[in-house]
Specification:
Its EC number is 2.7.13.3. It is an enzyme of class 2 (transferase). The chain folds into two domains: 2-112, Histidine kinase-like ATPase, C-terminal domain (Heat Shock Protein 90, 2-Layer Sandwich); 135-252, 3-Layer(aba) Sandwich (Rossmann fold), CATH 3.40.50.2300. With 254 residues, the chain is α/β, with parallel strands linked by helices. It is globular and about 50 Å long. The relative contact order is 0.13. Helix 7 (222-227) links the parallel strand 8 (210-214) and strand 9 (232-235). A five-stranded parallel sheet has the order 6-5-7-8-9, sandwiched between helices. Strands 1-2-4-3 form a four-stranded antiparallel sheet, with helices on both faces. It is built from eight helices and nine strands. The protein has helices at residues 2-12, 57-62, 80-90, 143-155, 166-175, 194-204, 222-227, 240-252, and strands at residues 19-28, 41-50, 94-100, 104-112, 135-139, 159-163, 182-186, 210-214, 232-235. The N and C termini lie far apart (42 Å). Helix 5 (166-175) runs parallel beside helix 6 (194-204).
């Protein structure tokens, strides 16, 4: 955590900004896991987010490589994140990065919860993942995320149409606005942001339930989303159980 916060400080050193650190317990299903060393179950998620200079995709792809650094000479060896990555993996955890130049960076560290051996054993009711059969338009410009979330939602029973372009998503919706019961869209996309897409969809069909997903809370928050007519707000990374709950909250509200 100290290393991640130090990096966040350096990213905001010149212009200032906001450093946000959160810790929460979440349930990860098999659909949420991309690392075979991880098992479904209870994890703690440590998030360290900043509003600094951010990184482009080429930097993100190399961020955990030893000796790779985006810092000035004398401010880093490029080993810090490589060490963090190694430690997290050694505990069968994972670390994910969301970043955008000029907007900021968010690191999400997942570590499995280990129950104490002296803890009194008890039978806990497992909360079932909420399912549905509605028709969903899912929009994310990252092909991997779009395909993965489409499969995840289909396992929950939904009929899913996935698009990796906000323009294509708008065209598909305009062609058959009554074909969909819900739209889930990413916030940061080329051509049109998630908010801009939502506004155009609502011009076509004002009663359309929309959930917007974002990795950066400073861009949009739940209150701002409501002012645009967006009914649901979801912070990345996407976790199956939490998104399933949010979907039912939005669709069952009426």
């Amino acid at each position: 955590a100290i290393n991640l916060m130090t990096n966040a400080f350096h990213a905001m050193e010149d212009e200032g900004g906001v450093l946000e650190v959160t810790l929460k317990e979440i349930e990860l299903t098999a659909d949420d896991l991309t690392d075979p060393s991880m098992a479904p179950g209870t994890y703690v998620c440590l998030t360290v987010a900043d509003t600094g200079i951010g990184m482009d995709q080429s930097a993100i792809d190399r961020i955990f490589d030893p000796y790779f650094t985006t810092k000035e000479n004398g401010k880093g060896t490029g080993l810090g994140l490589a060490v963090v990555h190694g430690i997290v993996k050694s505990f069968n955890g994972d670390i994910k990065v969301y970043s955008e130049p000029g907007k900021g960076t968010a690191f999400h560290v997942y570590l499995p919860v280990i129950k104490s051996q002296v803890e009194t054993q008890r039978i806990e009711a497992v909360t079932p993942v909420l399912k549905g059969t509605e028709r969903v338009l899912f929009v994310d410009d990252e092909d991997t995320i779009a395909r993965m979330e489409k499969q995840m939602l289909e396992r929950l029973g939904y009929d899913v149409t996935a698009r990796t372009s906000s323009i294509e998503a708008l065209e598909a919706f305009r062609a058959s606005p009554d074909k969909f019961d819900l739209v889930i869209t990413d916030m940061t996309m080329p051509n049109m942001t998630g908010v801009q897409l939502a506004q155009k969809l609502l011009e076509i069909r004002p009663d359309m339930p929309i959930i917007i997903c974002t990795g950066f809370s400073e861009k949009i928050d739940p209150e701002k989303a409501k002012t645009f007519g967006i009914r649901g707000y979801f912070m990345k990374p996407i976790v199956t159980g939490e998104l399933a709950k949010k979907i039912r909250e939005v669709l069952d509200k009426d």
